[in-house]
Design a protein that fits this description.
The complex is a heterodimer of chains A (194) and B (202). By secondary structure, chain A is mostly helical. Chain A has 9 helices and no strands. By secondary structure, chain B is mainly alpha-helical. Classes of the chains: A mainly alpha (194), B mainly alpha (202). Chains A and B meet through helix 7, helix 8 and helix 9 of A and helix 7, helix 8, helix 9 and helix 10 of B.
């Protein structure tokens, strides 16, 4: 109960931080601005984020990152096949990333804020996506042993690669995403010796 | 102040990056300062900052670019000597892993300050690296498929290598030839075969 309230205050503060940055940019956002946007006092903000502005920025990046994957998870939750998961996942992830204005602003103005969290989250993000894909691979006939585990991690690598850099593929076009999933991702699952 | 001709500026930038690589290899990334790089390159601090207004961070970004160019050149040397598509892929992926594991500067960049490499290679930076690598690999892959498919196949193989470079996997050590062969047979090659056979392509 107390934890849940604590969480919701943290969330309110971080949402306020995000709004403040979208209005004024990273450099010109102060703890006072966050207080005004979130409707919390400065004392409350410092109680939840003793490190002040720097800690707020760090926490904001982690918060947006988590929200992004929750959104992605919700978008693919009712997909039945592996193909569908990947087509929908790539389309939604690409759009959601483009819409994450606050992270674009941070990346542009103060990339060093993003660096530690990128390093920290790369491995755990990979595991998270792999875990999500695993049951679909099991259902696809790969068994539930090391082959399916390895394949799920490979698929996770490739999905994350396309999300962060589309390269020659137009990820706003559902037809092209379908082709990408069919020719590269699904083909590289079917190639696994069963 | 009079600006130097841009050709001179370009030559200075090349000297600064080469000096930065020497400093990092000799004394490590953390202990390399802008002063060290200026001294080793023989250009003044003022000139250095004219080429790299962002200072240390922008020099390091240029070092990452230079190291990627060296990696691609060593890849090209290996794939040029292969004729079978499977051998090209196995040789190229193995060489990329070997280069990364034995190059002192890449090791410093990846393990002392991974943030420099990561921010540089994520998003726009990664798109640029994919484009460069796929163009470079195209002629070798085009021996086995048409030009457009070769570009996409090169990009696909590059994604695989970059991913393992950024987030290594204990279970799939790419320095182990058997692991590379399995990766190519299970995943990389089937992705390329399906791409070439795709009826939608024109």
């Amino acid at each position: 109960m107390i934890d849940a309230r604590r969480e919701s205050v943290r969330e309110r503060i971080l949402e306020g931080t995000s709004r403040a940055i979208c209005v004024a940019g990273v450099r010109r956002t102060s703890v006072e601005d966050v207080a005004r946007e979130s409707g919390c006092s400065r004392a409350t903000i410092y109680r939840h984020f003793p490190g002040g502005r720097d800690e707020l920025l760090d926490a904001l990046v982690a918060f947006e990152h988590r929200r992004f994957f929750l959104r992605l998870g919700a978008a693919v939750a009712d997909a039945v096949t592996l193909e569908e998961v990947m087509v929908r996942g790539l389309l939604v992830a690409h759009r959601a990333l483009a819409e994450l204005e606050v992270l674009q602003i941070v990346l542009r103005e103060q990339p060093e804020v993003l660096e530690p969290s990128l390093v920290r989250t790369s491995q755990s993000t990979l595991e998270l996506v792999a875990e999500f894909l695993l049951p679909y691979l099991v259902k696809d006939g790969l068994g539930d042993g090391p082959v399916a585990q390895r394949t799920s991690r490979f698929m996770a690598r490739m999905v994350l690669s396309y999300i962060s850099a589309p390269g020659r593929w137009d990820l706003t076009d559902p037809e092209e995403v379908r082709r990408l999933v069919e020719c590269e991702l699904m083909a590289s699952v079917r190639g696994v010796a069963r | 102040m009079i600006d130097e001709p841009s050709e001179q500026g370009g030559a200075n930038a090349v000297r600064v990056v080469a000096a930065a690589i020497d400093c990092i290899a000799a004394q490590g990334l953390r202990r390399t300062t802008v002063e060290d790089i200026a001294a080793a390159s023989g250009v003044s601090r003022a000139t250095l900052y004219r080429s790299f207004p962002g200072g240390r961070e922008t020099i390091l970004a240029a070092v990452v670019d230079a190291e990627i160019a060296r990696l691609l050149a060593s890849l090209e040397a290996v794939v040029a000597g292969t004729s079978d598509l499977r051998d090209t892929l196995i040789g190229g992926i193995g060489e990329a892993a070997r280069f990364v594991a034995t190059d002192p500067v890449i090791e410093q960049l990846l393990f002392e300050d991974p943030a420099v490499v990561l921010t540089h290679l994520e998003f726009e930076g990664m798109d640029r690296t994919l484009a460069t690598a796929s163009l470079l690999l195209q002629p070798y892959l085009a021996r086995h498929m048409d030009g457009e498919a070769a570009l996409r196949a090169g990009e696909w193989a590059t994604r695989v290598v970059l991913s393992f470079l950024l987030v290594p996997d204990d279970d799939q050590d790419l320095l182990d030839r058997a692991a590379v062969e399995r990766l190519v047979d299970d995943h990389v090659l089937p992705g390329i075969v399906a791409l070439v056979a795709d009826p939608v392509r024109h």
